[in-house]
Specification:
The complex is a heterodimer of chains A (348) and B (452).
Chain A lengths: L1 H31 L6 H19 L2 E10 L5 E7 H6 L1 H9 L1 H23 L9 H23 L15 E3 H4 L8 E3 H23 L1 H11 L1 H6 L4 H23 L9 H16 L4 H18 L2 H9 L5 H16 L14
Antiparallel strand pairs in A: 1-2, 3-4
Chain B lengths: L7 H20 L2 H5 L9 E8 L6 H18 L12 E2 L2 E2 L11 E8 L4 H13 L5 E4 L3 H14 L2 E4 L16 E3 L4 H16 L4 E7 L2 H16 L3 E8 L7 H8 L5 E5 L2 H13 L6 E2 L2 E2 L1 E6 L2 H7 L7 E4 L8 H14 L5 H20 L4 H8 L3 E3 L6 E3 L6 E2 L2 E6 L10 E7 L1 H4 L21
Parallel strand pairs in B: 1-4, 1-5, 5-6, 6-7, 8-9, 8-10, 10-13, 13-14
Antiparallel strand pairs in B: 2-3, 2-15, 11-12, 14-18, 15-16, 16-17, 18-19
Helix pairs in contact in B: 3-12, 4-5, 6-7, 9-10, 12-13
Classes of the chains: A mainly alpha (348), B alpha/beta (452).
Chain lengths: 348, 452
């Protein structure tokens, strides 16, 4: 039972990232009709916002300590971050320690700007082009962004730890009546899940309860009629692209303590997120979220030794690698529009 | 005026003559005279450096390339000479004079393996066929090394492997044209197991997470056998797909498996992510079977360990070489590399640098670039002054035998490079095995192929 609970938690955690990326993908597809293969790159840019802020906060003054030697035997350079010089050692270290949560504030304007530039600068020219063209150009863009990040940050993962207070693990099982130490779960992963739930709730509330959101929803349902009512739907859709970019970016920022970010992390999530969108139903925001969590949980269960052994016995080895695609095939065969797909989307 | 009328027979004869004419230069090239592929023409010789310049191991590849450029500089008589000053072969000073190789200036071309076997073979093929590379070297993955080694065997050029740690490279996939200076999974296990026994005791239950490809399999097989011989029990071995980024689903079952040691047979990005997950799940703070839970990483890479940050502290592993070694050769190499690039070299850089000098010395000694002449010198070569102490290139399998370093993630690093500390230098005798050892069986070195 404890193993099952652990895998559910793992699934919810993985699903959080899938759901956040898929939510943005669906928003863009639903509003602009663009299949954005650069969305994984936006997730990665978000993660590198955290890396960049960490680097900014650790910009240091350099002094020479004649007592210490570097690897060549020369007097060693000692670096003191400016934030420690300005705010005192304790406060400076606290600021650096909390760089990942602080990066949320840094990432929101950056991601909105990146989304705006991406949409106005490139993607708007492809609105009337076939989906194949859109996929090619956005995939190309993703590769370009990836190579730029690699050029400046290198190919190796860069450690971006969580604040000390949120590191370590939490005895989740005790809350549910299990023995102590039976269900231990990393604290930051719980934070990630809570944060994702908050962002997803925020996006839905924004779309549901604001005039802007109402117009966007109306535009997703019938763009032409909204335009005929004198509303500049294009401008709102551009902002929606920015919001989708920010959602992906925030998912990336908060993901950095879970796995040290590298330039390739966007691609790792991209394909799975597309499967999530398709399973959830193209254009359905609740579908994307539901499918994100569902596939995350299924993927976690498939990695369990008992499940792997069972599928190996029925000649289905490496089920953990194929489960998501297998489920996608089954869902599409039985419900071609996906779990919550709308009639008429991609069906002309 | 008489016009020659073309006849069917005439056309065939003319065609045959023209064909023979076109074929003539190929038959009469110096290459054929020399009897081997890509015999150097003129005053230079071209080496092919096939390293990952893109993909997840690009930083390691960049460090390899730095080492190769440094080696070329030293061979051509530039710079401070680095380990050329300390290199001893068969008890005498190495034959390198700083005037290139056999008087020919060393030039190089580079290829990008992308850490993909097919891409690596394509780039090696291009360097051999288009650029006339006489030798191929480099790489940061065993899958790539095995693939490129096979290609070099067919093409008839020497392959001096870069970073490859699978037993198979000099085991079932060994080739007469291929040589490996780097150590292997068996050696890591043989060096680590006694240290693990000393530190953690005999009665341990180990859970293995293993990268699902040639290196992972042989590494796991080796470390499981070596630790079981010390009394440990292997509770479970779970193969993880190479593309895995989030290891939480694989780490979670360890918690209640009854194991008190987690062995991560992962390298590079896999190692960074699986170790991070294991630490996040509180494994290092856990008590199981009345003992502290421990994590072991059999193969360390300092470059990659940086990605795992503080999580590597106190964790045991092994490495082929480390910049903090205090022998004269290591110091000379670190000084040379550090002065040129501003940071110490990685183990990947070290093995690539050494391989280049070993190749050059073998050519000088043999007096030819003929791969078979070079292979003859390398086989059984005893050398020293290259940072690993006395070393032998065993003739039976073209594997170098030398001391192995057991390292531990440093508790109090003094700089960003100071991540690992050497806890034991395991003597060669302890990591040596017979050429027909079952873990290396099944392959055939075959005959040297000069390619012509």
């Amino acid at each position: 039972m404890d193993a099952i609970l652990l895998q559910i938690l793992n699934g919810l955690d993985k699903g959080s990232a899938y759901a956040l990326i898929a939510l943005g993908l669906t928003l863009i597809f639903g509003t602009l009709g663009v299949v954005n293969f650069a969305h994984g790159a936006l997730f990665m840019i978000g993660a590198f916002c955290a890396v960049t802020l960490q680097k900014i906060l650790t910009i240091s003054s350099v002094s020479i300590d004649p007592e210490k030697k570097d690897f060549l035997g020369n007097p060693m350079e000692v670096k003191t971050p400016y934030v420690e010089s300005w705010f005192g050692e304790a406060t400076g270290q606290l600021i650096i320690n909390w760089s990942v949560p602080l990066a949320i504030l840094f990432a929101i304007p950056v991601m909105l700007a990146v989304g705006y530039i991406m949409e106005r600068g490139l993607i708007k020219h492809f609105y009337k082009r076939p989906h194949a063209d859109q996929i090619l150009v956005t995939f190309g863009l993703a590769i370009v962004i990836q190579e730029i990040v690699k050029h400046y940050y290198g190919a190796n993962p860069i450690p971006t730890p969580a604040p000390d207070a949120l590191r370590g693990s939490f005895d989740f099982g005790v809350l549910l009546g299990f023995d102590p130490n039976a269900v231990i779960y990393p604290l930051w992963r719980l934070v990630y899940f809570a944060f994702s739930a908050l962002v997803i709730g925020g996006v839905f509330a924004f779309l549901q309860f604001t005039t802007f959101g109402m117009v966007v929803r109306a535009g997703m349902a019938d763009r032409e009629t909204v335009g005929l009512l004198g509303i500049n739907i294009d401008r709102r859709f551009t902002l929606t692209f920015g919001i989708a970019a920010a959602v992906a970016g925030l998912a990336g920022v908060m993901y950095t303590p879970i796995n040290s970010p590298n330039y390739h992390m966007g691609m790792d999530f991209l394909v799975l997120s597309f499967v999530v969108v398709v399973v959830g139903g193209m254009g359905s925001l609740p579908g994307a979220v539901l499918a994100g969590f569902l596939l995350g949980i299924l993927e976690s269960f498939a990695a369990m030794n008992e499940v792997k052994s069972f599928f190996e016995a029925i000649y289905l080895p490496s089920i953990d690698q194929i489960i998501i695609y297998l489920v996608a095939i089954i869902v599409l065969l039985t419900r071609p529009r996906g779990l919550m797909g709308r009639r008429g989307v991609m069906e002309e | 005026m008489t016009l020659i009328k073309p006849t069917r027979r005439g056309v065939i004869q003319a065609g045959a003559l023209a064909g023979a004419g076109i074929a003539m230069p190929t038959i009469l090239t110096a290459e054929s005279h020399a009897g081997y592929r890509n015999a150097p023409q003129g005053s230079s010789v071209t080496l092919g450096f096939n390293v990952p310049q893109s993909g997840p191991y690009a930083d390691e590849g960049a460090d390899e390339l730095r080492a190769y450029e440094l080696a070329v500089e030293h061979l051509n008589g530039e710079g401070d000479g680095g380990m050329m000053n300390t290199f001893m072969a068969n008890g005498s000073k190495a034959a390198l004079k700083g005037n290139g190789i056999l008087g020919k200036k060393v030039e190089f071309v580079t290829g990008d393996t992308q850490t993909k076997s097919d891409a690596a073979r394509a780039s090696a093929k291009s360097m051999i066929e288009k650029d006339g590379a006489i030798m191929i070297t480099g790489g940061s993955s065993s899958g790539v090394a095995v693939a490129v080694q096979g290609l070099c065997q067919e093409a008839g050029v020497i392959f001096m492997a870069g970073l490859t740690h699978s037993n198979d490279t000099t085991g079932k996939d060994k080739k007469a044209n291929g040589f490996r200076h780097f150590f292997n999974g068996y050696m890591s296990a043989a060096a680590l197991a006694p240290v693990l026994e000393k530190m953690y005791g005999k009665d341990r239950k180990a859970y293995h997470l293993t990268a699902d490809y040639t290196w992972g399999w042989t590494q796991q097989e080796s470390i499981a056998a070596a630790t079981e011989a010390k009394g440990w029990e292997t509770v479970k071995n779970v193969l993880t797909p190479l593309a895995t980024t989030d290891f939480s689903s694989y780490v979670a079952p360890v918690l209640n498996s009854g194991a008190d040691v987690l062995v991560l047979n992962h390298y590079g990005g896999n190692m960074v992510n699986s170790l991070t997950s294991a630490v996040q799940f509180g494994l290092r703070d856990k008590q199981v079977n009345g003992k502290n839970f421990e994590i072991v990483v059999p193969l360390y890479s300092r470059l990659m360990a940086r990605g795992a940050g503080e999580n590597v502290k106190g964790i045991f592993g092994s490495t082929n070489w480390h910049w903090s070694l205090q022998d004269e050769a290591s110091k000379a190499f670190v000084k040379s590399f550090g002065t040129k690039y501003g940071f110490p070299p990685s183990q990947a850089a070290h093995t690539c640098y050494v391989q280049t000098l070993l190749y050059a010395n073998a050519a000088e000694t043999a007096g030819t670039f003929n791969p078979c002449g070079i292979a003859e010198v390398l086989e059984g070569l005893q050398f020293d002054g290259m940072g690993n102490g006395p070393t032998e290139y065993r003739a039976d399998d073209h594997q170098c035998f030398k001391d192995v370093l057991v390292v531990k993630g440093k508790d109090n690093p003094t700089s960003e490079f100071d991540l690992l500390e050497v806890v034991e230098v395991t003597p060669r005798a302890q990591v040596e095995y017979a050429p027909d050892h079952p873990m290396f069986a099944g392959g055939d070195l075959g005959q040297c192929n000069p390619g012509a």
